[in-house]
Amino acid sequence: MKFEVKNIGPIKHADLNFDDKVVIIGPNSSGKTVLSRLFYVVTDPFFNFHFEFDPPLKGELIFGKDPFDVKKLMKIIKENKDIIMNKIKSNIYGLINSSWIQENSELITERYKMKLGLDDIEVYDKDLKIEFECREENGIKEAVIILEITSKAFDVGIYPVNSVEGENFVTSNIIMDLLRTYDNRSAFIPTERIGAPLLLSIANEDF
Q: Which residues, in sequence order, are CB contacts of 26 under 8 Å at separation 6+?
């Protein structure tokens, strides 16, 4: 998993690749905690928002019998980047100092490049395919089911989305799942925080 950070807090540039096991070490105030919190954001930028965007997105995807229109999805993301980035940055500001975000601050993965200081996001759509199914009863569409999101660049691993709430709900869920990068096989453990109480008790022990 690609994880790149530029100009956020004490971090000028960190270009990392999380594969099997990764250990990050460094002196105090070098940015280890900032990296761990940003990594949490990268795994799920919408961890406080689990349904649909509010205010609603401008424009909706049309689900019919034709193949999914990826270009239309990218257009909706571009037209609503202020709404999308507002949600993401509100989560980021809950984890790190807002003054650490500068005009040239960036957060980059295989899926996107976020220019946090400019409220801009570029989503990579190369080879992106979305499979869906429309369920009808008596000729009336009653649900849209997103079956799978795939790309040669990354694995989304979406759970099926079944919506009777409206197509804005489905569009919101597609965008949220497209930007998430969590993997159920992975775990991130900030060992310095876990080990600190034990190490302090040993250091302060009266021999």
A: 32
147, 132 in Cβ contact below 8 A?
A: yes
Task: Give me 125's structure tokens.
Answer: 């759509």
Domain ranges of the chain: 2-183
pLDDT tens for 91-139 read 999 889 999 999 999 999 988 999 999 999 999 888 888 888 877 777 6
168-to-55, 66, 137, 140, 152 alpha-carbon distances in Å = 11, 19, 21, 18, 27
CB 150 within 8 A of CB 111: no
39-69 residue pLDDT tens: 888 888 988 876 788 888 898 787 776 778 8
**15 burial level (CB within 10 Å; 0-12, 13-18, 19+):** exposed
Closest CA to 45 of 101, 97, 102, 109: 109
pTM for this structure? Answer: 0.78
Q: Structure tokens of 178?
A: 């497209």
Residues across the chain: 207
Tokens 């957060």 belong to: 107
